[in-house]
Amino acid sequence: MSIHFDEPSRRLTLRTETASYQMQIDDLGYLRHLYYGRDAGEQALTYFHRQYDLGFSGNPYERRWERTNSPDLIPLEYSASGTGDYRVPASVVLRADGSRGADFRYVSHEIRPGKYALPGLPAAYDNGGECETLVVTLRDHSAGLTLQLYYGVFAALDMITRAAVFLNDGNAPLRLEKAGSVCLDLPFGDWDLVHFHGRHCLERQPERLPVPHLVTTVGSDRGMSSHQHNPFVILCDHEATEDAGECYGLMLAYSGSFRAEIERSQTDAVRVVMGISEQDFSWPLKPGEQFVTPEVLLTRADGLTKLSQNYHRFIRRNICRGAHHLQRRPVLINNWEATYFDLDAERIFALAKEAAELGVELFVLDDGWFRGRADDNAGLGDWFENRDKLPNGLKDLIDRITGLGMRFGIWVEPEMVNENSDLYRAHPDWAFTVPGRKPVMGRNQLVLDMSRADVRAYLFDVLSALLRDHDISYVKWDMNRSLADVFSRALPPERQGEVLHRHILGVYDLLERLTAAFPHVLFEGCSGGGGRFDAGMLYYTPQIWLSDDTDPIERLKIQRGTSFGYPVSAMGAHVSASPNHQTGRSTPIRTRGVVAMSGAFGYELDLTKLPAEEKEEIRRQIRQFHADEDTAHDGLYYRLSDGENRWFTAWQTVSADGARSVVNLVVQNPEPFAKVPHVCLRGLEPEARYLLEEEQIVVTGAALMYAGYSFPRMLGDYPAAQLHLIRQDGECDAP
Ligand code: DGJ
Q1: Which residue ranges of the chain lie beneath pLDDT 70?
Q2: At what angle do helices 345-358 and 612-634 cross, to 10 degrees?
């Protein structure tokens, strides 16, 4: 049992592999948070929340003169504005008479086997006996509002999921002005915040700073999780390193506008509130209606590496779904950087033929294949073949490509429409615009109102026909602009605050229906690269195009940053042309391969123009990728160099059974003469012996981890190396 209720003390304890999480119902019915941290067993931890005079902080009415129980200072499982807790609230409730706030008090709780589901939303799932659920019901009796707090305890996976459900079970209408998924109070400790910022072409860059005596907000109001911030934060102690130190992760499984607010209070306690952004959010709740928040994935670990590995495993096994999530992914060629919009059937076939000869397994026809699409001014919405570019039709092209022994994939951007499209001409009201105001354009396109059932029905029909009538086994699902002018013509004025969230629910609904109808199709998410790289999208698409910057040296930073929360198998990564189209930098093809192989691997360049030796290197890379794929995708991932090292970047994967390991290194700034790149390996068994394949020597794990390994000197522009380790039974030779 991972959840235990102690009746006499009214204490609930959740336990995972390394953590315990404890809460208590106090005599006034407040659900107090007691503890989240390294497993302290079921010992009552109430003693460290001493009762003392809290001075001028407000008291609950029931206590009047007794000043030891201020709602402003006690750690809580969930917070609300308006009732004496002045820290950042998780919820803001508006009542029919205009009064605000909610006073949530305990009503009951339930412990049950298995994992709860969240209707219409992505949520972690149980593969059988992995999870226990706790539901704690609170209520504000005067408002007639019930709040259910959900906890999914995946004990062996060291993960606790959380979500909240609001139910209007009173007689009057209510309105939620803020409805956070989680409130986590850490009453003690000195914490650093790690968050992941970025921009188009440089996503998910970690930044670490001490939590200040302010409310720090990480978030997006773009209607997408965004290039600029990721719905994922880490709190770790000041001394925490990759290997040691208390680390907590909070990851929101949501793809729309979000907020993580981190506050260090007057008593140095830290509160984190995370959920849907309250900007442009206002959700009416009539009597009998409920609102379900997205889910937060919470983990605790010793050191940042373990925290990352917890998320990698959980996202692969308990978030990503479908036939492909644990399967080997096909090595693909995407034509985007090879042709951009300048494509026709013969050019595409020539590229596919060359790719097939080199061992590539899947051809992806990117943007530009559909009606009216000569450039990015027209065509979005009309998901029918472009007969000017494909005179014999899409089916003929697919037949020719699959005839080469390859599978076929296609690019779509379903949530968007160009004004110059038949769809927009027929249904201008389907796009987000504000009456009388010129809409903000992004890449010359408008966003379809996915909250509308008729829009989703059209997209389901047109995409189903495309997938049903053609031999397509992969879809790249793109989304290339932030939302603006968010106004739905299908909803009355008082419900416009629902639109942003309903839009995301609509995206999820369409993805759910399509992935269910076409289970053999591998969906890859994309958003101008990695603008919607989050656990919500990974529930539908087990891989996501990582970034539009395909320069391997830039990718080192992007893949490293992304690795803090997301697995290698989720990161779409391609070898592209040199000089690189985004940066103009030239890099060896070997380096491009080493970097992209630590991802869902593929190519994105004109292979027909490559010299023979580069083609040979591609053949070798594909063989190498398949040989190492189990280790890279199923194994444990280790960052070997820190983000400040501008000389080289190194990372390592160790297979799940520990028998194989691959060490990867790219030199960014070669040093003359005296210096060689030296790394201490990680994740090996100290006593075991490992064959270093490239060196043909056998060395102990202890030597490799504690003394380290020196790569040979590597000079020139951005050289890369791999070192393959195979665990041995035999004797150890001195190197
Ligand atoms: C943005 C994507 O990130 C690119 O890979 C490519 O698919 C283009 N869109 C096509 O318009």
Answers
A1: 44, 47, 730-735
A2: 70
pLDDT at 53: 84
Rounded distance, CA 145 to CA 202, Å?
Answer: 43
Q: Distance (Å, rounded) from C-alpha 169 to C-alpha 139? A: 10
Residue 604 alpha carbon, nearest atom of ligand 1 = 5
Closest CA to 478 of 563, 365, 372: 365
pLDDT at 426: 98
3-state SS class at 317? helix
- Does residue 287 have a cis bond before it (omega within 30 degrees)? no
Report CA-CA distances (Å) from 327 to 323, 388, 629, 634: 7, 37, 10, 10
What tens digit of pLDDT does each residue of 697-710 get?
Answer: 999 999 999 999 99
Q: Which long-range contacts (CB under 8 A, 24 or more apart) does 58-62 make?
A: 58/84, 59/84, 60/28, 60/30, 60/84, 62/28
* Per-residue pLDDT tens digits for 440-488: 999 999 999 999 999 999 999 999 999 999 999 999 999 999 999 999 9
The burial class, CB within 10 Å (0-12 / 13-18 / 19+), for 490 is middle
Quote the pLDDT of residue 540: 98
Pairing type for strands 332-334 and 600-604 reads parallel
Going 490 to 494 to 496 to 501, the CA torsion angle's sign is negative
Ligand 1 atom 1 nearest Cα = 528
Q: Which of 415, 614, 628, 634 is catalytic?
A: 614
Query: Residue 529 CA: which ligand 1 atom is closest?
Result: 3
DSSP string, 462-523: HHHHHHHHS---EEEE---S---S---TTS-GGGGGGHHHHHHHHHHHHHHHHHHH-TTPEE
For the chain, give the number of residues: 735
Evaluate: CB of 533 within 6 angstroms of ligand 1.
Answer: no
Q: Give the residue among 309, 294, 311 at the shortest CA–CA distance from 252.
A: 294
Using alpha carbons only, how large is the chain's radius of gyration in Å?
27
Closest approach atom of ligand 1 to CA 548: 3
Contact between 728 and 689 under an 8 Å Cβ cutoff? The reply is yes
Residues 530-574: tens digit of each pLDDT:
999 999 999 999 999 999 999 999 999 999 999 999 999 999 999
| Identity of the amino acid at 287 | P
262 Cβ contact partners less than 8 Å away, ≥ 6 residues apart: 193, 211, 215, 216, 217, 218, 233, 235, 270, 271, 272
Catalytic residue flag (residue 614): yes
The residue whose two tokens read 């609230």 is: 89
From atom 9 of ligand 1, which residue's Cα is the shortest distance away?
Answer: 528
* Whether the CB of 554 sits within 6 Å of ligand 1: no
Q: Is the CB of 718 under 6 A from ligand 1?
A: no
